[in-house]
Amino acid sequence: MHELEILKKQGYAIVGRHSAVKPCHWLRKALLEGIHCYKHTFYGIESHRCLQMTPTVLHCTQRCLYCWRFQTFELASLPKKDADDPAFICEESIKAQQRLLTGYKGDARVSIKMWEEAMEPKHVACSLTGEPTLYPYLSEFFEECHKRGMTTFLVTNGTMPEVLERMDTLPTQLYVSITAPNEEIYRKLNVPIIARAWERVNKTLELLPSLSTRTVIRHTLVKGWNMNNIEQYARLDEKAEPWFIEPKGYVYVGYSRERLKMENMPTHDEIRKFSEKLAELTGYTIEAERKDSRVVLLGRGKERMIKHG
After folding, report:
1. CA distances from 84 to 16, 68, 171, 244 (A)
2. Model pLDDT for residues 39-50, shown as the tens digit of each residue
3. Which pTM value belongs to this model?
4. 3-state secondary structure string, 137-181?
5. Neighbour order of strands in the sheet with 214-221
6. CA-to-CA distance for 35 and 51, rounded, in angstroms?
7. Taking the domains of the chain in order of start, what are their residue ranges?
8. How many CA atoms lie within 13 Å of 293's alpha carbon, on the beta-carbon side?
9. What is the pLDDT of residue 304?
10. Predicted confidence band at 301 (pLDDT cuts at 50, 70, 90)?
11. What is the CATH architecture assignment of 3-299?
């Protein structure tokens, strides 16, 4: 079966030749139960108005063991000649989200007001699967989103520093996933499929302080794999000088179950202890946490959590 057909069966809406949309667990939970995800607690994101998408559904530079998505990644580049127009991707992603949410209108558990708001997304999370920085018109895509009054999240693995460096329009918030304290663990856990990947990740960290947007380093913690060497994480974080740091626990779901075990999921207490030690080493402070998502937010104190509007 073709990869895109498999993704469709898993609930993805395919947009154009290489993009996709899929409502996340928290969007459904927000509509059905009024419970929002940790990004609402931390940054004011309204889960029911968040459009989760990717412009690179089949493209990535890593095959991370903890990734719970369907990994079809054989392609580590997306040439301009094969890339869809950014305005097309933006418009069609919104339409795809609206089609996916149509059925919620008749559900008695769903507030009609919230459903109407959900049909007009205000936030774009460019993070669904794949590596978004491989899309050659990413800056233009964010410009299109901002023109429509939407704020933007970009989640990147940091392997494409040159893309971030030349972007004229940056996302409202830039997440960089740093899930290994050193190159040895990085190679085993993140399984890069491009050359000099660890070197490139470090170049991204060096670049972050110069970028005029809110930056976050996310440490996805996999018990038995990457929760030691906190001093090395601290050195990486100090290099990046992010606004925030998010230590977050790996969850044993999806395709990651083929590569990892239930025991690789840390408890929230273990994540909290990791965070306390990291805060001590970096001078950051714990500003918030969500036990249901096994995540802690570290900040620099002087910068309050800025809400998305």
Report:
1. 7, 26, 19, 33
2. 999 998 999 999
3. 0.93
4. CHHHHHHHHHHCCCEEEEEECCCCHHHHHHCCCCCCEEEEECCCC
5. 13-15, 19-21, 50-54, 123-126, 151-156, 173-177, 214-221, 244-249, 295-299, 285-290
6. 17
7. 3-299
8. 20
9. 46
10. confident
11. Alpha-Beta Barrel (3.20)
Amino acid at 156: T
Size of the chain, expressed as the number of residues it contains: 309
Please write the tens of the pLDDT for every residue from 228-256: 999 999 999 999 999 999 999 999 988 88
